[in-house]
Recover the amino acids of this structure.
């Protein structure tokens, strides 16, 4: 899941203290790093783009190795649910969704998420801030994406609660740290991806 690299339109929490130009540069770095990791995994990669009209811009920036599609309309839950459903309809038997702001994700993280679906219905990668950096499933469980407090410290807890209420088997990966604030960005620069686990 990625946004077009527009000044003032990405990493707004970073921009609040670092400025739009620095936030955009950080976003570009994180996105390029995340895509390189995903491609290195050998798993087929689709970049889901917002706004949808920016697909050609994203292809020009990130290259032709992944496929591209427009994100659906709606909140983050609706957009992720649509992305998962499209992959399932197109024949994928396991789907993992990530964003672009968790530099600790490695190719092994993605493979682990997919392998864990042998014994779980949904896999979450917990973020240190209470959200999640990854979700994986074999089929779309639409209820997991409705009425969730997105971008809060309760996102993961609410999602796990919903999954268990639906009778789904839940598995959690290692906790990793997202880059949302200037402190997070400075931490990332100081530690690199090797220090991305909490």
């Amino acid at each position: 899941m990625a946004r077009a690299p527009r000044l003032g339109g990405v990493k707004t929490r970073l921009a609040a203290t670092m400025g739009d130009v620095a936030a955009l540069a950080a976003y570009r770095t994180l996105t390029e790093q995340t895509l390189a990791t995903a491609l290195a995994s050998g798993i087929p990669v689709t970049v889901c783009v917002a706004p949808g009209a920016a697909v050609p811009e994203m292809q020009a920036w990130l290259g032709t190795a992944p496929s591209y599609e427009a994100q659906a309309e709606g909140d983050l839950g609706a957009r992720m649910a649509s992305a998962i459903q499209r992959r399932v309809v197109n024949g994928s038997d396991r789907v993992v969704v990530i964003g672009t702001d968790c530099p600790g994700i490695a190719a092994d993280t993605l493979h682990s998420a997919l392998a864990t679906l042998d014994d779980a219905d949904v896999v979450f990668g917990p973020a240190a801030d209470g959200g999640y950096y990854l979700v994986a499933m074999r089929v779309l469980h639409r209820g997991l994406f409705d009425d969730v407090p997105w971008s809060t410290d309760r996102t993961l807890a609410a999602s796990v609660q919903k999954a268990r209420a639906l009778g789904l088997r839940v598995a959690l990966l290692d906790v990793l740290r997202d880059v949302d604030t200037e402190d997070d960005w400075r931490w990332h620069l100081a530690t690199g991806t090797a220090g991305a686990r909490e």
